[in-house]
Design brief:
Bound molecules: zinc ion
Strand content: 5-15%
Helix content: 25-40%
Length: about 575
C-alpha cells in the first residue's frame, strides 16, 4: 500500500473518531480525498479497519434525525458521545481556569470516541495532545506528497496551509448541519452544551490549529493588581519569502472584504488571504440584528470567541453596542463579551468591521475588586464603583441590564465630551475626538455586570504613539496597541521575545555586555533597573526572574494606558469625572 493511501485511511479514521465524519460518509470521504490527490483507486490493503467501512446497522442508518434537529437515536452518534465525555471530564464550577486545554477536557476522565459502546472504555491515543500530533503528522505527510506531485506550487507554510485546509474541508459537515446541531444542543441541553460541541468542532476541523497553539509560551505573573496572564504568541507562522513576494504581486481583492466577513466561511483562500474551507459560523440574532458567532483561530484564552456583524460596518461604541453585549450574555451566560473601543490607538487591530470578543475565561480584571463605590442620581438601583486596576475602570452591577445600560449611556455621553486640562484629558483637538470606552459585559451570579474602561487616544510630540499607550521605555517588550484582551489583563507579546529572552538570559549568566549586542542593547536599561532587586540571579532562577519582570513591565504598560494614574492626584481627577456624571 502506498504511503498516501494509508494517510488517507488514517485521516478518515481521525474524522470518524472525532465525529467530523459520520460512518455513513466514510466511503464518500475516501473518494473525495482520492480525487483531491489525483488518485483513481484505493489500492490493495488500503481497506478501512472493521467498523470503519461505512457499513452501519439499520438503526444506525437512520441518521436523518441528525438533520432535522431532533435528538439522535443512534447511541454511536459521535458528537453526542463527545458531549457526554466533556460533561464528565469537566468540573462545571471551574471552567478551565488555570488548567491547560488537555487537562480541562480530560482530567480525571477519559474521552469517549468512535468504537466505544460503554462509557468506561478509553479511546485510542491520550487526549487532545495526541489527537493534535496525529493530525499534524498526517497533514504534513499529505502536503509533502502534494508538493512532490506538483499539487502545491511552493513548499512554504503559506502554500501548505492553503492545501491542508482544503484537505480538511473534505471531512467537514455543511454549515447548515453544524447550525442545526448547535441549535439542537442549545435547545435540548444547554447553551454550554452547544458551545462545547462547536468549540470541539472548531479544533477537530483544524480551523483552530491545536498543534500551533501549543507552541505559545504562557505564564502567570503576580502583581499588586492580581495575577496577569502573559502570552508570547508563536502560533502565527512566519511567512516564507516566496509567499511574501507572491502576495506583493497579487491583485488586491475586495472579497472577502476583511478577515471577519461572513464570506470567509468555506472560502478557499489565496496567497494573501487564509483558507477557510474548514470554517463554520453560527448565526446569532442580537438586539434584532444578524451577527455571526465563531472562535478565534488563535485562541488567546479558553474558548476565545468572536461575535461579528454580518455587515462589514465600522466599530461603534454606543447605546446599541451596550444592548448587543447584554443580549449576547443573556443567550450565552457562561461567556463574557466585550468590545474594543472605536478609535485608533486605543482600539483593536480591526476597526473597520464591527465585532466583539468573548469567551469562557475569567481575567484578572474581572477578579479585581471595586475599591470605592459611588451613586449616580436617578440610578441608585445600580451599584457603581471604581475597580482596583491599572487602567481606569468603572464597574456597574445590578439585576436589571436595562438600568445598567441606561447608566452606561450617561457615562459614555459624558466621557465623550469630557475635558479636564489639569489631568491632560481633552475630548477633542482640532475637532478630532479622543475619548471613548472599552466595555465588557458578564453575568455575575444572578446579576449583570458591565465594566467601562475609559480610553483616550491623544498623541503629543513626546508620545507620538499615544499619551495613554505604552511609553517608549517599555517598547522593548511591548509597543503594540492595548486592545480589549490586554485591558482585561492578558499580555499578547510579540514572537521576537522568545529568541531575545533566550539570548538575554545567556548573556546575563555569562556577564556579557548587553549594550554591545545589537539585539539585546534595547533591554539593557531594564535589566540594570531590576537586577539590584535580587541578591543573585543565576541559572537556577533566571527563568522565573525574567518571567516575573516581563509581567511587571506589562503592569506598567497597563498603567501607561490608564487615563487616570494610580496616584492621589490621578484618583482625585478620576473622582472629578465621576462627580460630573
Ligand atoms: Zn469585514
Amino acid at each position: 500500500m502506498e504511503r498516501i493511501e494509508s494517510d488517507i485511511r488514517e485521516l478518515v479514521e481521525y474524522g470518524v473518531r472525532t465525529g467530523l465524519v459520520p460512518r455513513e460518509d466514510v466511503v464518500f470521504t475516501v473518494n473525495r480525498l482520492l480525487e483531491l490527490f489525483g488518485l483513481e483507486e484505493f489500492g490493495e490493503g488500503s481497506e478501512l479497519p472493521e467498523g470503519m467501512d461505512g457499513v452501519v446497522s439499520a438503526e444506525g442508518m437512520d441518521s436523518g434525525d441528525n438533520m432535522d434537529g431532533k435528538a439522535s437515536r443512534d447511541p454511536e452518534e459521535s458528537t453526542e458521545r463527545q458531549m457526554n465525555a466533556r460533561k464528565e471530564g469537566c468540573n462545571p464550577d471551574e471552567p478551565g481556569e488555570g488548567m491547560c486545554e488537555e487537562e480541562r477536557h480530560c482530567s480525571g476522565e477519559r474521552r469517549h470516541s468512535f468504537g466505544e459502546r460503554t462509557s468506561g472504555e478509553t479511546r485510542q491515543g491520550s487526549g487532545e495532545g495526541a489527537l493534535a500530533a496525529e493530525l499534524e503528522g498526517i497533514l504534513n505527510r499529505m502536503c509533502d506528497y502534494a508538493y512532490e506531485k506538483g499539487l502545491i506550487a511552493e513548499n512554504g507554510v503559506v502554500y501548505r496551509d492553503l492545501f491542508d485546509t482544503k484537505i480538511m474541508s473534505m471531512l467537514m459537515p455543511r454549515p447548515s448541519e453544524v447550525i442545526r446541531r448547535f441549535r439542537q444542543l442549545y435547545e435540548t441541553e444547554s447553551p454550554r452544551a452547544a458551545t462545547d460541541y462547536y468549540y470541539r468542532l472548531s479544533q477537530d476541523s483544524d480551523y483552530i490549529r491545536r498543534y500551533r497553539i501549543a507552541r505559545d509560551m504562557k505564564w502567570i505573573a503576580p502583581t499588586k493588581y492580581g495575577d496577569l496572564d502573559i502570552t508570547i504568541n508563536l502560533s502565527k507562522p512566519e511567512k516564507d519569502p516566496k509567499a511574501i513576494a507572491a502576495a506583493r504581486n497579487a491583485r488586491q481583492s475586495g472579497y472577502p472584504k476583511c478577515l471577519l466577513c461572513r464570506e470567509n466561511e468555506g472560502y478557499a483562500g489565496r496567497i494573501n488571504h487564509p483558507a477557510r474551507q474548514n470554517h463554520r459560523i453560527i448565526p446569532v440574532t442580537i438586539n434584532g440584528s444578524q451577527w455571526g458567532f465563531q472562535y478565534s483561530p488563535y485562541v488567546y484564552y479558553n474558548e476565545h470567541c468572536i461575535v461579528f456583524n454580518f455587515q462589514h460596518v465600522p466599530m461603534k461604541i454606543d447605546h446599541a453596542a451596550f444592548c448587543k453585549l447584554f443580549d449576547f450574555v443573556k443567550q450565552f451566560p457562561h461567556y463574557f463579551v466585550g468590545s474594543n473601543a472605536d478609535l485608533p490607538i486605543v482600539g483593536g487591530s480591526i476597526l473597520s468591521h464591527d465585532h466583539f470578543q468573548g469567551g469562557h475565561y475569567e481575567f484578572a480584571m474581572a477578579k479585581a475588586p471595586v475599591e470605592r463605590t459611588f451613586a449616580v442620581e436617578g440610578f441608585e438601583d445600580v451599584s457603581a464603583g471604581v475597580v482596583k486596576w491599572p487602567m481606569s475602570v468603572i464597574r456597574l452591577n445590578g439585576p436589571d441590564s436595562d438600568r445598567i445600560i441606561g447608566l452606561a449611556d450617561r457615562i459614555l455621553e459624558k466621557w465623550r465630551e469630557y475635558t479636564d486640562e489639569g489631568a491632560f484629558v481633552y475630548a477633542y483637538t482640532d475637532n478630532e475626538p479622543h475619548n471613548t470606552i472599552t466595555p465588557i459585559a458578564r453575568k455575575r451570579g444572578e446579576n449583570f455586570e458591565l465594566d467601562l474602561v475609559l480610553r483616550n487616544n491623544i498623541t503629543t510630540e513626546e508620545h507620538p504613539l499615544g499619551v495613554y499607550h505604552p511609553h517608549a521605555k517599555l517598547h522593548h517588550i511591548k509597543k503594540e496597541n492595548i486592545g480589549l484582551i490586554e485591558v482585561m489583563g492578558l499580555a499578547v507579546l510579540p514572537a521576537r521575545l522568545k529568541e531575545e529572552m533566550a539570548q538575554l538570559k545567556a548573556a546575563m549568566l555569562s556577564g556579557a555586555d548587553l549594550r554591545a549586542d545589537e539585539l539585546l542593547a534595547k533591554h539593557a536599561d531594564w535589566v540594570e533597573e531590576f537586577a539590584p532587586k535580587y541578591d543573585k540571579i543565576d541559572a537556577s532562577d533566571i527563568d522565573s526572574v525574567i518571567e516575573k519582570e516581563i509581567g511587571l513591565v506589562f503592569m506598567e504598560v497597563l498603567e501607561d494606558a490608564g487615563v487616570y494614574k494610580r496616584t492621589p492626584e490621578g484618583q482625585a481627577a478620576f473622582d472629578r469625572f465621576i462627580q460630573s456624571i
